[in-house]
Amino acid sequence: MKLLIFSDSHSDTSLIKKAIENHPDITAILHAGDYARDMNRFYGRGLEIYRVKGNCDRDDPFDEELLLEFEGVRLLLCHGHEYSVKYTNDELYARASQRGAACAVFGHTHQSLVTSKGGILLFNPGTANGKKRSNGASYGILEIKGGEVVSAKIRGENEN
Prior knowledge:
- This protein has 2 helices and 10 strands.
- It is mainly β.
- The chain has one domain: Purple Acid Phosphatase, chain A, domain 2 (4-Layer Sandwich), CATH 3.60.21.10.
- It has a 5-stranded mixed β-sheet with strand order 3-2-1-9-10, with helices on one face. It has a 5-stranded mixed β-sheet with strand order 4-5-6-8-7, covered by helices on one side.
- Strand 7 and strand 8 form a beta hairpin.
- The longest helix is centred in the first third of the chain and has 9 residues.
């Protein structure tokens, strides 16, 4: 199972559209907030879409976080601002551990990150909006097989 991961699109959906077209084998899409409503454009394509509220989504009706499970792997999906991710990942790690998640997917920093702490994968796809980051837009792909995350990759706007 493959998941496409986005965050911080800030009303620029060009990378999201391109990534969906370039990865026809994906099962679901996760958006870690800040213009999570951008995903409205992609309903009706037969894909599951999960999204959470970011600090720029104050009036949107999305949850602050979701605990999702794919093939036996629990993922915590949040924006990250409520866990001070611009300064440390300790609070996010503690929350993921508390919720029994094997992976925490988050955004907010506009910087991609793939790292592990205490057996928990911390995954930030960066920003889907290239104007918000000097080195361009990015997104993530998580692949899950046999009850574990077997691949966690960041892709830039010029990569498939």
